[in-house]
Specification:
With about 350 residues, this protein is an alpha/beta fold. It contains twelve helices and twelve strands.
Length: about 350
Amino acid sequence: MKDRITMAQVASRAGVHPSTVSLALSNHPSIPPATRDRIRALVEEMGYRPDPALRALTSYRHAKRTPHDVPPLAYLTNWDSEWGWKQPRAHMQFHVSATAKAHELGYKLEHFWLGEAGMSHQRMSDILVARGITGLIVASHLPERDRRLGLDWSKFSVVKIDYFPPEPELHRVTNDHRAIIQLATTQALAAGYRRIGLVMPEWWDEFGDLAWSAGFLAVQRRVTEEERIPILYFREGSVGTGEMLVPAKAFADWIEQYRPEVVLSAAQFVEPRLKELGLVVPRDLAFVDIFLDPNGRTAGVRHNCDRVGALAIETLVGQLHQNTVGLPEFPTATLVEGTWFAGETLPPRTNRVAGESRKKPG
């Protein structure tokens, strides 16, 4: 069996200290590019491969550091207030899980707000550098704020949560909205429903880069053209508000015109309107919550936002271990799928009496 090539052997051949080889392989900025390229070429020529057991030991020691050695990571937001981003449930869950995962991996996560009076992107860069922060999570940015983020990217390893800001393009972790709505629609079809309606704020689709409508319309192709129901968009509410209800008249007219057998939406958007119209779920029509907080009764899809935050930290720490900084040449998107929960709000259609008439709204 051929002996494993060691880092010391590579260093001896290159005429450098083993630590120089280690730093070159992790893209450390202290190693000149020419030296790094020469060592990397030599590594390939000699067939050196890092010892995975040694890497695991290094990671273990990193996680066991004493509190005063814990390096900070930045969680950068740009909402209309310093803590306003905590109001939407998803953004709150992103942060909670990211904080927990950072602690688990031996880091601490500190919040920084770009909306502070007098704060510029350059000043924020300077603050982070002065604090010794090289790892950055970009999260919770309102679409209308800072269309392009202009930090000194050469100083940071960066991962973005969600879609905004759209520029510059960064490695991103977010929910797979297309897969979530496809899962919900497919489950409704499997339960025997054909006339499936989707109700959501217009900004929801825009915020998710049209992933919601793309997924829904893709599954709608499985039913006849006569059974397809147009999406009911509404404009009330915004990303940062908690009060988002579909307008009563638009909702009533949509139900009257298209007669959906099942409504896909978030409970906060439609439940009060259903009650106002005297419609009872699931007697009059079924309901699937596409942003479900599981309660054992409602059918729907849980977004797994906790996994999004944790995965963003895992991705960032991987970049830090490799000393990967700057804007990525090939930005990647890691999408977290949802989890389906069955519930009594989506009973099998075959259990309902054929030709059963539903109570008309109003």
